[in-house]
Write a structure and sequence with these properties.
By secondary structure, the chain is α/β, with parallel strands linked by helices. It contains seven helices and ten strands. It has one domain: Rossmann fold, CATH 3.40.50.300. Helix 3 runs parallel beside helix 5 (about 150-160) and helix 4 (about 120-130) crosses helix 5 (about 150-160). The longest helix is centred in the C-terminal third of the chain and has 17 residues, at about 180-195. It starts with a strand and ends with a strand.
């Protein structure tokens, strides 16, 4: 069996608006394994994205722990969390979140340069990953000049170029038609396996989830494995 790379234990999260307190996560437990694609499914508002944000250090739980290779990321300070995100995590969203004023190549280079990779090395790596996703002839295109499927391929290249240990994907194919969704999912999973990374994917698409190694379903703030 593959090693557990990320382990969440008894994660609880509430949100307060005025005098109203809403409990979203009520003691979530899950294990994420290296070299596997894990799907998290559930109804809208079930807390899927909230859980993903906690796993990705974009939000903090009210209580519980998230262990990455024996280190509790919930106890990291803001600077440590930012370093952890840049070095160990890659993010793919339903909407690509590419920067419109920059080319596909420049968008993929950015996380590398934030991590202090030299400009020349970042350009070489970014070109390599854009070629891997089939966009070697679109390096200088801006997002507005690319199709929806092409924009998502750029986002995948950007997420993978730092060779992160874990990819967190929030509805990565949710904005695509079925044909493009299947093609992007196939490309995404093949590249991830090539890098021996773990994937945590939030999706409404049960058929897509069934193609993953594991499925966790959130119901009433808890997980049914």
């Amino acid at each position: 069996m593959n090693e557990i790379i990320l382990k969440a234990t008894d994660i609880k999260k509430t949100f307060k608006e005025g005098n109203v307190i809403t409990s979203v996560l009520n003691g979530i437990n899950l294990d994420i394994y290296a070299d596997e694609v894990t799907a998290i499914i559930g109804k809208s508002g079930s807390g899927k994205s909230t859980l993903l944000h906690i796993l990705g250090t974009l939000s903090q739980a009210d209580s519980g722990s998230v262990m990455f290779k024996q280190k509790n990321i919930e106890q990291m300070n803001a600077f440590e969390r930012a370093l952890f995100r840049n070095k160990n995590l890659g993010f793919v969203y339903q909407f690509h979140h590419l920067l419109g004023d920059f080319s596909a190549l420049e968008n993929v280079m950015m996380p590398l340069m934030i991590g202090h990779t030299s400009s020349s090395a970042a350009e070489k790596i970014a070109k390599e990953y854009l070629e891997k996703v089939g966009l070697g002839d679109r390096l200088d295109y801006r997002p507005s000049e690319l199709s929806g499927g092409e924009r998502q391929r750029v986002a995948i290249a950007r997420a993978l170029c730092n060779k992160p240990d874990i990819i967190l994907a929030d509805e990565p194919t949710g904005n695509l038609d079925n044909q493009n969704a299947q093609a992007v999912f196939d490309l995404f999973t093949s590249l991830v396996k090539e890098q021996h990374a773990a994937v945590v994917m939030v999706t409404h698409d049960r058929a897509l989830a069934e193609r993953c190694n594991r499925i966790y379903e959130i119901t009433d703030g808890r997980i049914d494995a």
